[in-house]
Design a protein that fits this description.
By secondary structure, this protein is α/β, with parallel strands linked by helices. It has helices at 11-22, 60-67, 69-74, 100-110, 115-137, 143-151, 157-161, 164-169, 175-180, 201-209, 218-231, 273-277, 320-328, 374-390, 405-412, 457-473, and strands at 3-7, 26-31, 42-45, 48-51, 78-79, 84-88, 93-96, 212-213, 235-238, 242-247, 253-257, 260-264, 266-269, 295-303, 312-316, 338-341, 356-364, 397-403, 444-446. Helices cover 35% and strands 20% of the residues. It has a seven-stranded mixed sheet with strand order 7-6-15-16-17-14-18. It has a five-stranded parallel sheet with strand order 9-2-1-13-19, covered by helices on one side. Helix 1 (11-22) packs parallel to helix 11 (218-231), helix 1 (11-22) runs parallel beside helix 16 (457-473) and helix 2 (60-67) runs parallel beside helix 16. One of its GO terms (molecular function) is oxidoreductase activity.
């Protein structure tokens, strides 16, 4: 293999391009949009700047491995303290500290005498997480190798059959501590009622390894990937939507974009896997039909006032489990769960001197259940919850943009408008997740949240590396 095409310039495609180029492969990236980033694009309106997608920076060693030590250091990431704040309607708050002494004090405030159990919990979960990184998340298992792992899971044993909620309740007895340590599975489009115990790793990694601030937002990390790739000779073609992929009689691959044809020895498809199969005139096998997770309603709000919120905030209902049950049943919760990103808390350049640029995210069902018109009424409930925390907002709006499942489907080609891809349940993890390669298409591999290992920036960066390794070692 001397050349490769990468379809999609999100984090998975950028990671694949970097790893292929480092191996001496000539790489061209084809991106339908006019800029890189995929779900992690940035958008500006006047003096307001927004990250349109992911905003939490965690598992920074994955970024360092992909970028290299020098370019990673140039990001100048700073550890947030606390990483975020969880709020309930009655005014109670929980701070997810990355300083272990402060975090234990916060736990004690909710549940006196819990410190020893908390330390044991974090030690066990972080140890199992390191095993999972090595044995599950950074490997593309076959069904046989994954079955062998499940039969002898070692420190991961409590994660195999247990649920996230039950696993957490064995260590923490106060409901609000359990609430604060389980909502994180929503990052992956899966409710804590359905998530396996494995996802206890999410709050554990946040507490032990930290949540980080990137000056310039997630877009600065995208730019670092692009700069690193260009330095290795990777070429980027923006505004080229690939509408067909085909393999020639000689074994090379052709990507048809508008009226042009691009040719290479191999292809990485870093777009949502099931819709991307249509580019090949194929469909996913019926026995591999995936259940897709929740989606998200995102509001991007440019306000003529400063909002008194930390960099990251989570607003939980008094009974979040009722909200999770509604989402799992395909309904909008009566009381929305909200994540609010307020970059001005650390980066004043994101808005005018007297303003704020907020990203407000609320989990919602995907398009298989969401009815037309549902989100208009839900938007009102979102604002009521926000204004109950920070005061009047609607009269101060200068910029507003809304994206929901319909936009995730039309703008990014995401199956069912599911912002996080296939649901992250035990039967859709590891080798049970859609494979990165398909025997019908030699020399072509998939990368991103629709395949292995899963959703989230660190996971899709790993996915891009695994995809490149498939091609390099085939």
């Amino acid at each position: 293999m001397k050349s490769a095409l990468v379809v999609g310039a999100g984090f998975a495609g950028l990671s694949a391009a970097l790893h292929l180029a480092r191996a001496g492969i000539s790489v061209r990236v084809l991106e339908a949009a006019d800029r890189p980033g995929g779900r992690a694009q940035a958008w500006s309106s006047g003096a307001y700047r927004f990250d349109l997608g992911p905003t939490l920076v965690v598992m920074t060693d994955v970024l360092e491995e992909a970028l290299g030590a020098r370019r990673f250091a140039e990001l100048e990431l700073m550890r947030l303290e606390p990483g975020y704040e969880v709020r309930w309607r009655d005014g109670e708050r929980f701070a997810m500290h990355s300083d272990i002494a402060l975090l234990l004090a916060e736990f004690e405030r909710f549940e006196p005498g819990v410190s020893a159990r908390a330390l044991d919990y974090f030690a066990r979960v972080h140890g199992a997480y390191r095993d999972a990184r090595r044995q599950v998340l950074e490997r593309d298992h076959t069904l046989l190798s994954f079955a062998a792992l499940l039969a002898r899971p070692g420190r991961m044993r409590p994660w195999i059959a247990g649920s996230l909620r039950r696993f957490t309740e064995r260590s923490f007895h106060r409901p609000r501590l359990v609430d604060a340590l389980t909502f994180q599975s929503l990052y992956l489009g899966t409710s804590p009622l359905r998530a396996p115990a494995m996802y206890a790793l999410l709050p554990t990694v946040e507490a032990i390894e930290g949540i980080w601030f990137a000056p310039g937002g997630m877009a600065s990390i995208v730019d670092a990937f692009v700069d690193a790739a260009r330095a290795l000779g990777v070429e980027f073609s923006y505004g080229w939507r690939v509408d067909r992929l085909e393999r020639s009689a000689t074994g090379s691959w052709h990507a048809h974009a508008m009226e042009e044809r691009f040719e290479a020895d191999a292809v990485v498809v870093a777009a949502d896997r099931e819709p991307a199969l249509a580019l090949l005139g194929a469909r996913a096998p019926r026995f591999r039909a995936m259940r897709y997770g929740h989606s998200a309603l995102c509001l991007y709000l440019g306000l003529r006032r400063r909002v008194d919120l930390p960099y990251h905030s989570v607003f939980l209902p008094d009974d979040p489990w009722s909200a999770y049950r509604a989402l799992d049943a395909g309904r909008l919760p009566d009381d929305p769960l909200l994540y609010v990103y307020n970059p001005v808390a650390r980066d004043a350049s994101a808005a005018p001197s007297d303003g704020s640029a907020l990203l407000v995210l609320a989990p919602v069902p995907n398009l298989t259940a969401l009815r037309e018109g549902d989100l208009a009424a839900f938007r009102k409930r979102v604002f009521e919850r926000l204004e109950g925390e920070v005061g009047e907002m609607r009269e101060f709006i200068e910029v507003e943009r809304m994206r929901g499942p319909a936009e995730w489907a039309s703008e990014l080609g995401l199956m069912h408008g599911a912002a996080f891809g296939p649901e992250h349940t035990l039967d859709q993890m590891g080798a049970f997740r859609p494979p990165m390669h398909d025997r019908r298409f030699p020399g072509l591999v998939f990368a991103g949240s629709g395949t292995r290992p899963g959703s989230g920036v660190p996971m899709v960066v790993i996915s891009g590396r695994l995809a490149a390794e498939h091609l390099l070692h085939r």
